[in-house]
Design a protein that fits this description.
Layout lengths: L7 H15 L4 E11 L4 E10 L2 E10 L8 E10 L3 H16 L8
Antiparallel strand pairs: 1-2, 2-3, 3-4
Length: about 110
C-alpha cells in the first residue's frame, strides 16, 4: 500500500482557508468543542470563533498533511450564527428521530 499524499487540489484549499479564515485579522478561534473522526486522515471540528463582536459556530473538515505537524482546515466548512443554533439543534433532533424510526417517518 503506498503512503497517502495529498493532491495539490486538496492541499491548496487547506492553505487558503488557513490563511484567509483563521489567519485573517478579526477571526479568532475561541474554543474547539468537538473533533469528529472521519477516518485516519480526516476529521470535522466543531468550534466557536469570534469575528468582531459576533460569535459563530464553525463546522469544518480538517485533514492531516504529511508536510505539516498539525492537521489543516479545508475549504469544506461553514460558520453558523449562534442565533441559528436552536434551528440546527431541531434539525439534528429530527434526524435522530428519523434514524431511530428506520426512516419510516421521512417525508417523500
Amino acid at each position: 500500500m503506498r503512503p497517502w499524499r495529498p493532491s495539490p487540489k486538496s492541499c491548496k484549499p487547506a492553505v487558503e482557508v488557513l490563511t484567509s479564515v483563521f489567519g485573517r485579522p478579526g477571526i479568532e478561534e475561541v474554543a474547539c468543542l468537538a473533533t469528529i473522526s472521519q477516518g485516519p486522515k480526516c476529521s470535522v471540528r466543531v468550534t466557536l470563533a469570534r469575528f468582531g463582536d459576533r460569535v459563530l459556530l464553525g463546522l469544518r473538515r480538517w485533514v492531516k498533511n504529511p508536510d505539516e505537524p498539525e492537521p489543516v482546515p479545508t475549504a469544506k466548512g461553514v460558520f453558523i450564527r449562534t442565533a441559528d443554533i436552536p434551528e440546527l439543534r431541531r434539525a439534528l433532533d429530527e434526524a435522530e428521530r428519523l434514524l431511530a424510526s428506520g426512516g419510516k417517518d421521512a417525508a417523500p
